[in-house]
Amino acid sequence: MNKLIAVLIFFVIVTSNSQDTKPQLSITIDDPNTVSTGNMTWMAKDDAILEALDNYGIKAALFVCGKRIDNAEGKVLLSRWNEKGHMICNHSYSHSYFHSQKISLDVFENDFLRCDSIINNYSGYSRFFRYPYLKEGDTPEKRDGFRKFMSEQNYKNGYVTIDASDWYIDSRAVDTLKVNPGLDLTPYKEYYISHIYERAMFYDSLAVKLTGRHIKHTLLLHHNFINASFLGELLTHFKKNGWDLINASDAFKDEVFSQEPDILPAGESLVWALAKETGKYESLLRYPGEDSEYEEIPFNKLLKTYYK
Question: CA torsion sign, 291 to 145 to 203 to 167?
């Protein structure tokens, strides 16, 4: 009997470990909007992002900033995502910078509730909140006060584990197309894919150091032109390099998302924050975790080489 129990325990351990041998990626999309950008209408942009997700059979988490969809077209957009079975989550109404002295805890809470009132009638409504700019409070009162408030609302933190700067590449592409509508965007695609994949590898390697395993990741992307143009190719790149693509709802079940890093200022990627909390990885961490300042020089170098 003891031998049988030992064999069963061994089998469970081996099976559990085997599930963590490959990195796993889910997609989360911030700031859905009805603005036409690049050479796409908002609906064409929306169609392209939804199609890329459909092609891989995965469901994303859509983090809704209320002010960007608070109109008739916005309701259409949310209904489209809801009907496809994606999660509809809260990203505040005003997208305020929580670390600002002008944004009190009360103001931030009321802004949260205003967005919740817009999304809570959808069947895909999911009680996850993502802080604008990934800033979770610069004082203990703000950080702990809003965590308590979220708990009272039965909400969880919609953490990002892989942060990146897709928004910066998008802004560069959109600005360029205004001047040169027919420009070949190949280098923009190449930088977009290589940049996001490199950041994914960084955060995954850091997560393995922290937890001893490949966690289920949530990648932060935005509802914008660059993702509408190349999300499908990005997902193909991850698959070809051995990553499993999973639903966001499955990713958020990973036990790592139950943690609340004790750092100030609070925020950034969950992996970044957990590493910061240990005090052991200062040489690997920068603040903020991701920003345009890190991408401008290498991106300009690539463009100069490609268009010379």
Answer: negative
